[in-house]
Amino acid sequence: MELEHGECNVIVTLGSQKVPAKRRLSQSKSPLNKIAKLKTRFETGNHINEADPNEIEPAQTQWACHTRVLHDQSPYFAALFGQNFIESRASVVFLPSSIIESNAFNSILEYMYTHQIPKPDTVKDICDMYSAADYLGMDTLCTGIEQLIYTSMAHKFTCYCSTCVINIPDLFLFCRTRSIQMQDERMIAMTQRIMTVIANDPEKSLSTYWTGRHMAKLLIQLPQDVSQALSHKILHRVNKSNAIESLYACFSASNILSTNDPLLSWSKPLHATLTSVQAKATRTIASHFDFFCCQYPALLSCIDEDQMDCGNVGILYQGIACDLMSRHAVEYNDQVKHILNVAKVMILCYITRRIGDIRHIGGLDKLDKSVLKLLADDLDVRPKLLISSNHPLSHRGIFSFLIPSAPTLNTTSTYTKALSRHSSRSATTSRHITLPSTTHHKSFTQRLIQLFKMFDSNLFA
């Protein structure tokens, strides 16, 4: 640096002390031996005694620099050195420590001499560098820092990784403050991007950003109306198109918070938002239940056989026939009852067509006996016909030959192909599974009488 630019001829000092004009004039006339001493400290990095590594290194407050470099890179220094200011002839220049941090000015000097932006370690470091660069009028550096935040610190504000969960809430407070106080257009745009990633997609953000300690800290630091505005923003994004996903995200987020903060030492603001979102999601599902059963893709893919298979068909039947249809409210809502009946019939048709494959893999073996009996009644078959050979109920007793043979499962295409999800009371009577009747040569009673006759004849022979 010295070979390229010559001897350092100015000392930049951070501090709030105002130096009188006479003192600055005297400094400008003094020899540069003081600059030489400070330059030596600058080149050695102001290191403290290495014998004691436990001591904290004090922040650097003085830098030996070149006037020409400062003049060319910063409009602030260009105006300072190029006008009829006393500082233009002074050997020491003061910068406000309340605005410019030591680490930030170190990074800015590195940029001035190398034209490369050093990558900061923390969000605070990069924010301090931006504030210092803006104060010094270095617009190109501010643009570069903005891009560095966009790509490295915030991952283009479309990410939900653990790094972004920490960085983005910390960025929000800085960006919002500068947006309001400085009318900084870059920070205004960045604030909007942060609000988008935090609150626009409840399905993703609730279980990530709204479970972190940094988000909880942000909600506490912000004014109450701003914190409420953030919570209301994510609340208003819950609608019937994402209510189920939002409800599941609330469930996941609550589990995470109960693990990370079981005593509610810092997560109360987050729990308040999750409670509000959960209430709206459940209310939305209840108000548009017919939509979720008739039009919602995620549920339709189950009963339309896109996602239904031999392994989960029993669980689907149990959920509809036992869990939903048994609820008291369903009995008094004809439309909901109709929708569930249609879904139930479609599941029964699926079981009827694939009973062999279902039995082979034991798809219904995990059902409770009561559910299995209800399913057998709906299909008009014996429960043993629905389970695999490994199931305990499949073993027959010594009088099993007395039980009539089970009918073969079959459906008539006339009814199953014409099923519709849309409410039509006139059509509900034809939506059922038809099983062919089985003719037996001898009824159960006749066989029993024959058995007793054989027993009597042998007894009195």
From TrEMBL:
Please name the InterPro entries in this protein's record: BTB/POZ_dom (IPR000210), SKP1/BTB/POZ_sf (IPR011333)
Annotated BTB domain ranges read: 66-121
Q: Which Pfam families match?
A: BTB
Gene3D superfamilies the UniProt entry points to: Potassium Channel Kv1.1, Chain A
Q: According to the UniProt entry, where is the signal peptide?
A: none
Q: Which PANTHER family match?
A: SPECKLE-TYPE POZ PROTEIN
- The name of this protein is BTB domain-containing protein
